[in-house]
Each structure stands twice: as structure tokens, then as C-alpha cells.
Amino acid sequence: MKPYTLFAILCMFLFIQSCQQSRQQQPTPRDIEIEETEDELADKVIIPFTRTNGNLVEVRGELNGVPLNMWWDTGASMTCISMLELRKMAKENKIDSDDFIGFSLAQLADGSVSMNARFNVRSIVLPGRDGKQVEVNDIQIAVSEEEDAPVLLGSDVISRLGKHTFDEYEGVIIFDE
């Protein structure tokens, strides 16, 4: 056999071997990622979230003890509720006229400006797994005149919640306690 033929056969053999190895199932980044142990998560607060049809993050929370679904909105400078939620909170005696601060102008995402009532909320709580929670106290919220406006958890609250990361695979926000 000529040396070139032997070299070509050897190259073909190595090529076939490498192709067969690459066909074996490769681990996904999630498989490779080092999983946090239960001990590492023990000092964390894990808040579940869902994605809306518009791909927005929605969390379950409480304003002065009233459970509400909230959109996680880092683009909103203030936390905002609708008049409907304000009425619900008033009906349940969770907010009253003593919490009224005044009125303010707010620029909306579409560029328009609206007048909003402002109220003080004693606590905003995001309940997590294992009975843990994150909480922010004494927050001013804006009240939209729109009855069907979503509850927006704005950057005024998000910035006070502490360090957190999103785990899109598990659908949770992980907070350092």
C-alpha cells in the first residue's frame, strides 16, 4: 500500500469516529450548570412568576394585605394600581383617606400625561416558597383612573427589594435574604 493511501484510510477512520461521538447527545447548558444545593437556597427567597401573553413578568403580591397580581415593570418609575384595586382596598379597610397624599402628573409609556392620585401603602409583600417573603414598607403608589389598568410593580419598589436573579427555566425570581 502506498503511504498516501494508508494516510487517507487513517484520516477517514478518525473522521468517522469523531462524527459518531458528536452524534451522541450533548448535555444542555442547564445540565452543565452547577445546581445550587438546598443548603445554598436555604437563605434565599424564591418567588414564582408567570409570563403574560405579552411576555411580561407577573408575580402574586399583596398591598396592605390585599392579594393582587402585579406586572414586574422596571420601566415604571412608580408602583401603580387602578381605581378598581383602590376601591377593593378601601372596601376591605386596607387603605383610607389618611393614606391620601395628593395628586401628581405622570408621563405614560405612550408619551401622554395623566393626573394620578397618590396614596401611601404601608407594605408590599411578595410571598415566596417555604413561607418566606420579601417586603417593602412605606411606598407611595399612583392610582390610575383606568378601571382595567394592570397593577405595575415599579422600579421604586423593585430597587428596594434587594439583589435578585431570574431563573427563566424554573419560572422563579431568587432573592438574597
Task: Explain the overall architecture.
With 177 residues, this protein is α+β, with helices and mostly antiparallel strands. It is built from five helices and ten strands; from the N terminus they run αααββββαββββαββ. Strands 1, 2, 3, 4, 5, 6, 7, 8, 9 and 10 form a ten-stranded mixed sheet that branches. Strand 2 and strand 3 form a beta hairpin.
Structure in a nutshell:
By secondary structure, the protein is an alpha+beta fold.
Please tell me what the overall shape is. elongated
Separate helix tally: 5
Strand content: 35-45%
Q: Radius of gyration over alpha carbons?
A: 26 Å
Number of strands: 10
What's the rounded overall pLDDT mean?
83
Please describe the biggest sheet, giving its number of strands, its sense, and whether it closes into a barrel: 10 strands, mixed
The assigned structural class equals alpha+beta
| Regions with little confidence, pLDDT below 50 for 5+ residues | none
Q: SSE order in H/E notation?
A: HHHEEEEHEEEEHEE
**Helix fraction bin:** 10-25%
Distance between the termini: 72 Å
